[in-house]
Amino acid sequence: MLRKTQVGDAEWTKEASIIEEKAYRDTWGKGLDSYLQMLYERLVLMKDLLSDTGSIYVHLDWHVGHYVKLIMDGLFGTENFRNMLIWYYGGRGAKAIAGQFPRNYDMLLIYSKSENCIFNRVYSTTRIPYSEASKQGYRRDEQGRWFKTAPRGDYTDESVEQLRREGRIHETRSGSIRIKYFLREAEGCVLEEKLLGDVWDDIPDMMHVPLKERLDFPTQKPEALLERIIKASSNEGDLVADFFCGSGTMQAVAEKLGRRWIGGDLSRFAIQVARKRLLDIAGCQPFEVLNLGKYERRHWQMNVLNGEQEDGSRAIADYLRFIVALYHAEPVEGYAHLHGQKAGRWVHVGATDASVTRNEVMDAVRECQANRYTALDVLGWEWEMGLHDTVRDEARRLGVDLRLLYIPREVMDKRAVEAGDVHFYELAYLKTSLLQDGQTVTIRLDDFIIPNPDLVPDEVRSKVKKWSDYIDFWAVDWNYAGGTFHNEWQTYRTRKSPTLRLISDPHTYAEPGKYRILVKVIDIFGNDTTQVLEVAVS
């Protein structure tokens, strides 16, 4: 579960987060049974989401393929089993194991939702230069078209006459009849197309695909594999989904093939890899990156953290006490917006299913001001975009020292809680400059600070030479109207271009007026930091 990411000009091998390790332990912690239970629950949901004309592909190796086949027979019905594809990746090299034949293939189980599924025949294509085509038995007709021939077979005389009218009959010197099959041509080559069967031996593993495709993601699949799957079971404009999307191969291929897509993954690192991969596609259509963690947290609050009463009061009270205790604070009562106290600082806890808003923070700040409390810590899972800097300044004017801290996902892991391996950390600090020349503006990044350096692994800290090394990606919404962030300009690191640009391209507003600009930074750990700027254009 190691992944490589860029830190400035150097590479860092990132270990899985505690929550990812938990997912791995929950999947394999009790052996095969826990893995199959995990997969079964997800397949049930995927079947519900599948359209009546849809198909599902499950990629497995020899460890569990036969068990999953039985599960899918039960869920989808044996009548909806379509194929077991064999992907033979000979390039990986077969290792000799005592008493066994070498293992050098994976399987893909294909099931449909119904008999009315989309299926497009797929062909493999071989490019044969003109100079070689004649040597391999291909001919040209009077119009210069390349063709090959096959025996007449069981064509009737009537069918042969129809083919003759179409110019598709070739008579040999001996007078026998053969059928012409015309070949497509491209760039001085004849294209030989063969109908694919259920053994795919022409797609190499990731070690042997073009270098530009490799992202060093541990479970990455070749684009050729996903292209073949998507073409076979969908049409242009259809919606395809991958809920274990990893490095985003499915989304990238679907985007190139004109399909709509949905991708999901537990790992922030995976999402960031996929995001940058998509943005590298010329003409990529706009897409959103959504955090669905609030549903996971709400489920955890209601079903794991002691349940709830009819009005939900018990679950909320239990949740607040739990978070306050994890923060090593003492619970307090009798306040509208304050939930705890720690070393002279008061504590407000944000809800599991909503971002902490400016109004929410200021309500807690005003309650502190009214009681002459001078220090407040606000704990939240997610934050309203652009909240950080201005709300701290507002609190300071009211005499309250404000800190904003993330509630880490590890609080939902009982083992991490029991081990004391839960750390709250402050939001990063972003400093920018807005450079304006008439109706044209440019954004410059001036500083980026992670306030809790102890949370940065030593191996990362040793590679960081300057503040910008902590930034992996940043983007600008030139017309931020609240709610959804629109990537209207972005830049990011790649292996080929590890140096990050710190100044945006200029943006010119067509009309005078007041505009809000949102700058979003994503650090090398996958965390978002945002800042709102205002500009008046005359």
Can you describe this structure?
The chain is α+β, with helices and mostly antiparallel strands and 538 residues long. It folds into four domains: 3-119 and 198-237, Vaccinia Virus protein VP39 (Rossmann fold), CATH 3.40.50; 123-195, no CATH class; 294-418, Trna Endonuclease, Chain: A, domain 1, CATH 3.40.1350; 428-537, Sandwich (Immunoglobulin-like), CATH 2.60.40.10. The chain is 26% helix and 28% strand. The chain has 14 helices and 28 strands. A six-stranded mixed sheet has the order 16-17-18-19-20-21, with helices on both faces. β14, α7 (249-256) and β15 (260-263) form a beta-alpha-beta unit. α2 (32-49) runs parallel beside α3 (65-76) and α6 (223-233) packs across α7. The protein is elongated and about 110 Å long. It starts with a strand and ends with a strand.
Q: Return the domain count.
A: 4
Instruction: Using the coordinates above, name the CATH class of the largest domain.
Output: Alpha Beta
Number of strands: 28
CATH superfamily of the largest domain: Vaccinia Virus protein VP39
Catalogue the unreliable spans.
17-24
Count of DSSP H/I helices: 14
- Structure classification: alpha+beta
Q: Quaternary status of these chains? A: single chain
Largest sheet: 6 strands, mixed
Residue share in helix = 25-40%
Separation of termini? 53 Å
| Strand order of the biggest β-sheet | 16-17-18-19-20-21
What's the average pLDDT?
85
Radius of gyration: 30 Å
For the record, the CATH architecture of the largest domain stands as 3-Layer(aba) Sandwich
Described by the principal axes of the CA atoms, the overall outline is: elongated
CATH topology of the largest domain: the name is Rossmann fold
